Amino acid sequence: MLSTGSPFPLGASLSPAGVNFALVAPNAQAVELCLFDGTGQSEQQRLRLPACTDGVWHGLLPSGRAGLVYGYRVHGPWAPHEGQRFNPDKLLLDPYAREIVGRYDGSDLFLGHDPSRPGQRDGRDNGAIALKGRVVAATGTSTPPGHARVAAGERVLYELHVRGRTRLHPGVPAALRGTYAGLAEPAVLDHLQHLGITTLSLMPVQHRADEQRLLAMGLSNYWGYNTIGWFAPEARYWSGRPGTTPASEFRAMADAVHARGMELVIDVVYNHSAESDELGPTLSMRGIDNALYYHLREDDRALYENWTGTGNCLNLGEPRVLQLAMDSLRHWACEFGVDGFRFDLAPVLGRNARTGFDPRAPFFAAIAQDPVLSRTLLIAEPWDIGPGGYRLGEFPPGWLEWNDRYRDTQRGFWLRQGREGAVGLGEFAHRFAASSTQFEHHGRAPTASVNFITAHDGFTLRDLVSYGERHNLANGENNRDGHAHNLSNNCGVEGPSDDPAVQAQRSRLQRALLATLLLSQGTPMLLAGDELGHSQQGNNNAYCQDNETTWLAWIGASDPASEMARTRDFVARLAALRREAPALRSTRWWPAEPPRGTPGIHWLRPDGQPMASGDWHSGTALAVLFESTAMKDADAWLVLLNAGPEAVSFRLPPGAWRCCLATDPEQDHGDATRALGDTAEVPASSLRIART
Quick check: 519 and 431 in contact, CB under 8 A? Predict the structure, then answer.
């Protein structure tokens, strides 16, 4: 039997007195707690939660212990056009479940509505196959608040997928490949440290449910942007080793990352849930209290606002839904040791149907005042598909933002000269210097701009110089999915090529893009595998490809003469240069036009003269001089860029310049520096770095 228990904390909480259950469902008429055997397949008992306090249903099970498997049946009206979709025949997952039993299989038994008559409630029971929670004991480990541990100017992000990173890694034991434990292996962390990475940014690791459409095709939502359990690590990335759980293995991985002095960021999805639109499954919140948890259309509350393109949007303007997100974030920060979060489709988090996006919305205010979350690393994907959904540069001070304009500018500058989409020197310089138009306000620093050339969404770096068009047929959408505006350059051949000239051009362009990224002001982000030459065979939307398309191949990584090893070491040298030169990673905005000999960035023509207003609209070559003090030795750095089709001779500023890196292999001398004279020639599609 259940005693009254407490409405706080939410979820299933273990104590010496038993297990307290608390569920937010203010519009429900009754809530039943359903207990199952250890497999989650056989329902053993139904108990009505005896009390409801301020919309929270609660009860204490004195006999409850860790390992107990449970779910809820919630009673109330079936009235879709009024926003209510209660159906006690559907077992529901606790949104606060710390561990999840089972996996959504796409069966229509998960539908709350009759498949043939969507306006009617479905009466079939799905308890045997429904997702369920498992009661877990406290971890006994907790991270103190404020654990972002890398200085802003030193941060180098690295976006990766837990499974794809190590699924084929020869240095990881076979049983651990593709898992949290595999990511913690010394061979993996050694590689990342060699590259100069400071911050791992993991693609979603919260429990997901794959879309029914993908399951029907034998595919899955590999990227993971379809969350249904915001407190539970995705079990598919767990090794299953005896004595471990998904949670304990994740925490051990976080500890291993921290032991190397690196940060851990996770990609989180609080903009929508895996329950999709009005024809989607009833897995959790739709059946618990649909009108509370979701943004519903004002003209017809049977329909959902769809600013995400995935069918629904969570309503973070509701205090209890906001509490769910905040509690989840604190759980990952404190219990799992996560140092920061990258928020998918972040404008949705500050949206409502009447006023649109507001950077002072409850979600942002709640984070800003939170003693734990305000001290973590906060990164926004600053766009969604709703009205006025592009919000680059509009997030609150303290936030970083993915800068897609930086991405498109660098692609246009290096890959599209003489073609549609080409970018001039003025736009290049603006983005190279951290996009002040977007970010120089309200005290925000240049590091607010997360600069990237490639990310999970789009071509890999190798494919960017190997394919002119997307090749996404494997996704089952007739090649209609994925971005059509890639600003890529296949160097004359679509796909792989044995032509030495094509290979050399592709290598030069990749190295030029990598060098530009690591030398730009702002926070650089690398995509996992770009340092290895990873290709997805032209698939620029591989969200459903859990196979060799997305798994990183490591063949040749151990051979120092291989192209893979040379690119890896080139990235490591770039990161080392960035660390060595404070001017290249300034956290302050440089003066717009500083006099020569004073600290700042100076933009020079190839003839050595300062750029004039008319020079920014034409040309493809530029010299960038960094002076952090008045030309003291070792304080001046010079970047020479030539995106044109012919070599360009640059007249160098006064000083004893030494070349320390060149993107063209013929001019590069490894770690050795080479004295330069009064001039330096930079080949086509190339970049050189010199210092005094």
Answer: no
